[in-house]
Amino acid sequence: MAGADVRTVGQGEVAVDAQKEAVTDGIVAVEFAKIAVAVAGPTYFMLVDLSNSSGAYRHESTGSIHLVGFSAAINKSQSGGVWIVRLGTILAIDAVNVTIGFLDIGQLVNDSTNTFVAQQTTNLFPVSLSLKVVNGDYEKLAVNSKVTSTELTTASLIEDVSGGTVNPAVGDLLIRLERTSGGGDSDINYTAQYRTVK
């Protein structure tokens, strides 16, 4: 065919291409952005709704989340305010309380100085961090902070990436935002790259 770019590839090249596709297969991205959040107490947002594999979420399975990478930023409007934002997976939840395993990665703190912006980027590819939950705990991950509280229950409604609200469930990946002192509001932005496994 005239003008066509034709080349001959060996079996080695084909094998490498297949390996690359296998490594990246199933990886999806999701972004949560919220402007001018003015809350004093803890507020939760849904970053990855594990049971939802349609709509705003494009993952293939509803078994468990495997985090490949993320970027996060928080920008506060006033000096003197202290904001803390954390990532965590629901390990157990019922009609009374919730247990969340918080990750050390993804935690941002805006202190009470004039540091208005805190941000972090982590790339784990080609490996991933398994957030699989088995019997009320991470299957393969040890974390320093597992918190049980009444801040969420199975009846709670929290905002997801589409702007709608959903009920939290075991295995979901959440953002927890809290202003511990001072005033003003903050903008937050989290983008996660992940795959799901049965």
CATH topology grouping = Jelly Rolls
Assembly state of the chains shown: single chain
**What is the percentage of strand-forming residues?**
over 45%
Instruction: Classify the helix fraction into a percent range.
Output: under 10%
Main sheet record: 6 strands, antiparallel
H/E element order: HEEEEEEEEEEEEEEE
What is the 3D form? globular
Uncertain spans, ≥5 residues at pLDDT below 50?
Answer: 1-24
Mean pLDDT: 86
What is the straight-line distance between the termini? 44 Å
Number of domains: 1
Integer-rounded radius of gyration? 20 Å
Could you tell me the number of beta strands?
A: 15
Description:
Residues 1-24 have low confidence and may be disordered. The protein has a single domain, classed as Sandwich (Jelly Rolls). The strands form 4 sheets. Strands 2, 4, 5, 6, 11 and 14 form a 6-stranded antiparallel β-sheet that branches. Strands 1, 3, 7, 8 and 15 form a 5-stranded antiparallel β-sheet that branches. It has a two-stranded antiparallel sheet with strand order 9-10. It has 1 helix and 15 strands. It has 198 residues and is mainly beta. It has one helix at residues 11-24; strands spanning 28-37, 43-48, 64-76, 82-93, 98-102, 108-110, 117-123, 129-130, 133-134, 137-138, 145-149, 158-159, 165-166, 173-181, 186-197. The longest helix has 14 residues, at 11-24. It starts with 10 loop residues before the first helix and ends with a strand.
